[in-house]
Structures are given as structure tokens and as C-alpha cells.
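Model the whole thing, not chain by chain.
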Amino acid sequence: MSIVTVQLGQCGNQVGQELFEVISNDANDTQRKVYSECSSERFFNETANRELVARSVLIDMEPKVISQSIAKTAKSGKWRYGDRSHFSQKQGSGNNWANGYCVHGPRHEEVVMDIVRREVEHCDCLAGIMAMMSVAGGTGSGVGTYVTQCLRDAYPNSFILNHLTWPYGTGEVIVQNYNSVLTLSHLYQLSDAILVHENDTVHKICAQLMNIKHISFRDVNKVIAHQLGSVLQPALTGDSHGVYNRNPIGELMSSLVCHPEYKLLSVCNIPQVSSSSMAYSMFTWPGLLKHLRQMLIANSKMEEGIDWQVRAPSLQPEGIERTRSHRRPGFNTSLANLLILRGKDVNNAEISGFQHPSLYTPWLPADEAFSMWKTPVPFNKYEKSAILVSNSQTLLRPLDNMVGKAWNMFASRAYIHQYTKFGISEEDFLDSFTSLEQVISSYSQL
Amino acid sequence: MTQSVVVQVGQCGNQVGCRFWDLALREHSHVNKKGIYDEALSSFFRNVDSRRSVGGSCDITGGRIQSLKARAVLVDMEEGVVNEILQGPLRELFDSTQLITDVSGSGNNWAVGHWTYGSAYREQIVDQLRRAAEHCDCLQCFFLIHSMGGGTGSGLGTCVLKLLEEEFPEVCRIVTSVYPSAEDDVVTSPYNSVLAMRELTEHADCVLPVENQSLVDIVNKIKHMSHSGKPGSVIKKDSAIISGQGGVSGAEKPFDAMNNIVANLLLNITSSARFEGSLNMDLNEIAMNLVPFPRLHYLVPSLTPLYTLADVNIPTRRLDQMFTDAFSKDHQLIRADPKHSLYLACALMVRGNVQVSDLRRNIERLKPMLPFVSWNQEGWKTGLCSVPPVGHSHSLLALANNTCVKLTFMELRDRFTKLYRKKAHMHHYLHVEGMEQGCFTEAISSLSSLIEEYSQLDATKDRLMPDAARLNIAT
């Protein structure tokens, strides 16, 4: 089964290209034929001349990024984008969500959906659609939201996963908090699951773990692609009987998104080291899993700087409701977790630490909250990697900060005229704020 | 890539405009060694096969440069300046149809420029604007250059601004306005300026105010520094900042140095639209990010480096020094000190070999010293263009939406009131058809309410504003 990716805006297109790069390298690296074939089928279409064409649609409102991507991949010779799988315009969206959503989206709806339909028809069997975008700008966020709406209407029975990149907290675009709030509130209704990467977090990984001196956006994008690729590459689920899972997005959703109020997913992937230190590093499953578990409960995104003081709360005897006061400060409660193990001796890994009910919210039984996939095939040159996709309170603080800043700005009505002139009213803003406060409240009470 | 059209009105507007075209050509020829008509050039120039008949000269896309025509409309109600252009080395850049002139000028009277010539030439102007727009694949922005103190630039210029809004509502309007000094020799300049201000507040998307006095101060400082150099040292004169040397026109005239600074401002603001970079900042993003309330769209420009390459003893400023300079009083193009007023938003457009990490480091360093409004504590918009200006390794343009413009406006209002109280010279204006007493009162009240809006924001400056109470969700 195949996944169709829709890359939207500058960020979506740049990250998307790195993702296909990682996947194609990973699939070519391995000796395992079944894994390779499954991965190829999932992400690429093989043409008559044995060329690999990415199952991807590239959308942007200005031409520079897409033309660079297409040229770069064509030159590499390993894989390429489809000749007619892209759409761009001359003038961008000016960092304005309303311009993207109300003007560009509807204007180009037909052409865009045509390209998507063609890509979907190339698939023997569609596993789902993944839309990749950022939330800070105008195209990825605004046009991306509109396109997600169109996808939902056109493919009501397919799974739609949105991959979002959140901007640096200190700001890249002044109105990024407005754009983010509008995007998230709409996507919450349209999307099946929202997988988030934050630029701040990935930047720290680049600086502290990978020791990159002058970090560029390319470095950041490579880390995001590595993490995303490690989730989507083939793996064996519990009941798949030795055959690679055919429906990765569907299974991701059924494991992690059991309630429509809780759709925000984050990813942790260890180990992450610079390529120069990889040759000297030795990892064991117990070591990796211990770190990963503590990263989960102490809300740390990296294996450095983990707060080992945070402990899971002790369980209350049956019948007594776990109230807020029993929760430890700094402890990250999960709704559901998916652990993916890739590499050598994967069957010996001891994962019971992730199944303990104290990690989870009480209204879901722990054995339903935890799932695991694994494969003996190592991913992207790491002999062993452990990936945790988590539906937990991890994103609560960044989300709360984002909404707080946007609300402060909205209270003085700053920049609102830029949005109202394209058709987004103050009412629309209030609706968006309300939905996100609801999400924040739900996650706070896990 | 998008295109922009420059509309230069009046004597000042046309003189600054010419410096702009001269420097733009120099910049592009520095970068574009092969003489190919590329996307960067097309943002301001058309490539035309001039062998064909004038009426049917058509655009050639791609390929070698044949004959470049500026995407511009030149308007002046007296012929002197435009004729000079037509006889000068830039004459090839302009088609005769792009020029709209008259003979007698506006007599430093806003009403004559705005109402008399405005209605007489309305059709012709709209025609030329439409032609220029049609030659563009994707027109993004109109740049209007004019002065505020005279009659044509001020009066007819603001009439053109209104036309641009009517005919091309979706195209961004960025206006570069040269404000008169207090010692201006035009007696009625306060009237002209205030009457023009109202139009700018209502119809422009962004205004870049520039004060003549600041330009004079800067030019004097540079001259002073280069003349006090140690003997035997080499003075670099090819800096594009004040010197037009190396450009097409040779000898320098009195206002040339000042006009060059303003021309550089325009070059830098459009650099990201013309050349590539790792963090592009499009022109429509400038208005989006820097204008939080529609009328507060006056952006104080400051340019660095100004002195560096014209100097002898002062060593090359380090990158960080460049950032610090951009916020110092001496580098602002109006007489103001933004550090002591409130920032609503700030854009930094960097050119040259500067990395994201340098940018972030400097922002972190400068933030504590600059007061930002409470709801926009991280109000920075940044752009990185990889091509530096000619003769420099890097440069920085800062555009600040800052309440310090209030002081400039208050001074203007004072000068206006001094004349208005005595009704001095008003009959010259009221005689003009279309002009009434109401125009004056409306203009001054528009200016006053603008000042009031800035004052209200200022009042929040030293107060600790609490965060707005969040919505309460029933659980």
C-alpha cells in the first residue's frame, strides 16, 4: 500500500525532499530485499525505464524552492519527482494565512486536486495521504489548510496525516502565532492525526547531539526527515505474522488517536549522533530504552539533559480516582505510545517499562495504550534505533505559549486588518482560540 | 519572480529616481557578468528589441540583454529635470511615452499639483501606469518617490497615489517621502507636507520617511571623516553609498550625495526581491509584518554601513558593530532616536555573507536595549540576501515601526500651525479649483489623530502590561 505526500510551501517542500532522500538511501542501503521492495512501493512509483518517481505532489505559491528541488533530485539520479506533479505561482502568500486560505487555495483548487488525483491513481492501493507544511508562514499554513479540507472532501475514507513544523519560539515571522493558531484549529477538525516537529527542539539536537557549528535550515530538515522516515519505513506489527505492515498510517492512528479530542503526536528518536562519532558508538537496547522512557516521562526531547529526578507516580489502589494532586510536577502523562524498534537483536529488547499503567492516563487500560512495531532491519546507518511516537502532554507547553502570545496580540487587535481584508473575521479568530483552549484543557487534564 | 514599477514625481522624486536607476544598473552589471537578461534584472527592467518600431517594441524574455528599459513612469510639471535626464547617459532607459511633463511647474503649491494638474493629467497618467503594469508578468509593488515640501511631488504625487489605489488596489504601494528640514527655503512647505500627509496616511501601504536634515548631517559627517584622513592613506571612493562615481553619470551635483543615500535605501529594500538568499523577504511581507494597524505604516529607515568605506582611519567595522550602528541615532534617515521610543515592529534586511546564526546572535544581544510594545516582544522580521551592495562585503537596512516618528510629525504640525493661525499664503491655495478650507482642517485633524494613536501606544511603554486574560473553557 502506498502513501501519497503533498508538500506545501517552502518548508513542506524542503523537508519533503529530505524525507524522500532519507527513505531512498535507507531502502538502497539494506540487503533485505523484502524491506526494500516494501519501502519502494510505499513511497515511489517505478516507471517503465526502472526509474523511481516519488509519490509526491509539490505545491507552492512562488517558484524558487520547487524548481531548486526538482533540479537537485533530477541531477542525483537516484530518484526524481514526477514531471507534472508540481504547481507553483509567481507571487507568494506574504506570510498571510488568510491570503493562503481564502485567496490562493480556492483559486487553484482544481489544478491542485487534479495533480493529487493523478498521483493517487498511480497507487495500486492507497494507504493514506500525508500533507507536510509549516504553520508560521502563509502558503504552507493557509493553502495547506485549504488543501487538507479539499483532500478530506475528495477522499472521505482515506487516512490523512498532517506533518507540521512549528517555528522557533523567538520568531521567524512576526505574525507566526496567528498563522499557527488558525492552522491548528482548522486542522483539528479535518485531520486524522497531527505529527509535530518544533524548530527549537531540532535545533538543539543539531547543536548539542550532532555538534554542528553553523546550523543551517538544511541540517534541521535532515534531522526532521530522519525522524519522520524512521516512523514511516516498513515495520512488523504485533499481529502481522512476519509480513510488513501494509497500512502504516491507519495503524499509527488506531494505536495513538483513540479520541478525537487528542490528535497531537510527537516523535523522539534515539540515538542521534554526528556521523563522525557513529563509528565509535555502541548502543544496547537496555541503555536506549531506559533513556527513551525517561525522555518520555520527563518531557525531554534529547538524550542529553534528561531530568532523572522525575519519577512516575505510584499507583493508587483500585477505586480511588487519581486526582491532580497525585500527579508529580514535571511528569509527562501519556494517552498512548507507539514504540518502534529497528535493528540488530530487536527481539531481545525488554519493553515492559513502557507498559506500566503509571505512565498513562487512568481512563485507558495500559495494554491498549501501548503498541509496538519492530524490524530487524537497521534504519539509515544506525545499527540500533528506538523511536517513540507519543500522544502525550509533550506539546502542551509549546502550544500554550503559542496561544498565549497570539491572544496577547489579538487583545490589542494588532495586524488583524491584514487578515480581515482577505475574509477572515474577528469571529473566526475567536472560534480558533476557543477550539485551541479546548485542546489545551483536554491535554492538561490527562 | 515579481516586478515592480517606480513612479517618480516632481523634481526631488525624479532626481532621486535617477540616482536609483544609475546605482541599480551598476549593481546589476557588477553581478551579471555574462550580460544575460535574468529574473533579477526583470524585476526593474524590461529587455526590448529597439530595432523594431517604437510603437511595437516588444519584450524579449531570457537570452542576452539587448536594450534595457526601466519599469518607470516619470512625472514632472516643469521640464528642467526630465529634459536633463533625456540628454544624460540614462536616456536610453526611458521611452518617451514614460514621461509626463508640463511647462510651468506647480509653484510650490500642493493644491495646484493635486487638483489642477491632477485632473488635467489623470488620464494620461493612468494610461502610462496601465502600460507599465501590462508589461509585467506579475506586478507586485509600486514605488512612489517624491518630496513633501513642494508642489508637484507633494500634490500631484499624492494624487497619483490615490490613482494607484483606485486602479490597482491589489498592488502594494510603498512610498519614499522626503520631508523638508525646519530651515527649508520653501515658505509653504508645512502646508504642502501636512496636506500630503493625509493622503499618505489614507492611501499608502507603507511610507519610508526621509528627512533632508538627516541626510545633510550624514553627508557632512562622511565628508568630514574622509577629509581628516592621515596623509598618504588611500581613500576608497568607490563606495556606492554617497558616491555616484563608477556609475553612468560623471560629475556630482549639490544634492547628489544625499540622493544617493535614498537611492541606496530603495536598492536595499528591493534586494531580496531581486537576488537570491537563504531567507527571502518579499515586498508584500514587509507590509504584512511591519504594519499592525492600518494607519501606523511609517517605517523609519536606517542604513549601515554609511561611513565605512569612505573612511581612512576607521578600521572595517565588524559585523556586530554594523548591527549596533543600525540602531544608533546617527544612522537614522529621519531625525529621531528610536531607542528611546517604543518599537511596534522591526525588520532587518541583511545583504552579503551573513549567516542565520549571526543574525540571531545579534538580535539576542540588542533585544534588551530596545523597548518593544508588550504584545510584540519578539517583533522581528528578518531577511537574508546573499548579494552585497557594490563595494561592501555586507550591509544592513533596518526598518522600524517606531513611535519616534511622532516627534517628526509634531514638529511638522507646529510649523503648520504657525502659518495657519495667521492664514498666511492660504489664498494661493483656496483660489485653486477643487480646494477648500475643509481640506486644511481635515488634513490637520488627520495628522493630529495619527499623533494621538502613536501617543497612546507610547503611554504603554514603561508600564508593565499584564497578559490578556485567556478564554475560560467549561470543563
